[in-house]
Amino acid sequence: MKTIVHKADSRGFANHGWLQANHSFSFASWYQPDKVHFGALRVLNDDIIAPKMGFGTHPHDNMEIITIPLKGELKHRDNMKDDWQKVLPGEVQVMSAGTGVQHSEINGSVDEYLSLFQIWIIPEKRSVEPRYDQKKFNAEDRKGKLQTLVTSFKDNDEESLKIHQDVKLSRIDLSEGETFTYNLMSKDHGVYVMNISGESEINEENLDSRDAVGISETDSFTVKSISNTELLFIEVPMIEL
């Protein structure tokens, strides 16, 4: 088993006033040569956005973009659909940028901060037709068991959102003292585990809130929850850039 530990305080940080951004991987002006990607996972940003503020219209292409609101109200609009779309905690949004998308993202609340993860996955196909989708996932369905959020179009899981890469994004909520064994799809995959909250232990490594560990070259690994814990698993092919 190969592991790489990214403690929360080792992430890049940018304070834009209206935006507090933590970068697990090199992003914008923050560059770390040893933190450019984990396999096909290129970006994992942990953002806090002030009320009524957000990102104006900007372009993306040839990237699979996944947004997971944790608190507050996200509003999204793109050139595939003119109306603003609400994305709330419990929901997940996917967007295949493909040949090119223009979109905007704002905090839809006038008085509450918005907290979210935004994830960029390098696609297995370039220049696909742009696509948008979102879905609600019930929190009770991940208590003590894995809840799959996003998989490949090639995967037979009919309940998950789909993107153009051989991935599995999933969440689990563990009570204090619970253990869970994660089984990888193949030895060509690795899993980037974000400890969203609480404290857990993986491969004798203690993870606190927002600590992460990348795991590869193994069939499985076991998570032990030290306290009530929320975890996000991002399983990706271990491609080289």
From TrEMBL:
Keyword tags: Iron, Metal-binding
Cofactor: Fe cation
InterPro entries: Pirin, Pirin_N_dom, Quercetinase_C, RmlC-like_jellyroll, RmlC_Cupin_sf
Molecular function GO terms recorded: metal ion binding
Name this protein carries in UniProt: Pirin family protein
Keyword rRNA-binding: no
Protein family membership: Belongs to the pirin family.
Location of the Pirin N-terminal domain: 11-121
Residue intervals of the Quercetin 2,3-dioxygenase C-terminal cupin domain: 150-236
Keyword field contains Cytoplasm: no
CDD domains: cupin_Yhhw_N (cd02910)
Gene3D superfamilies documented for this protein: Jelly Rolls
Positions of Fe cation binding: 58, 60, 103, 105
Cofactor: record remark: Binds 1 Fe cation per subunit.
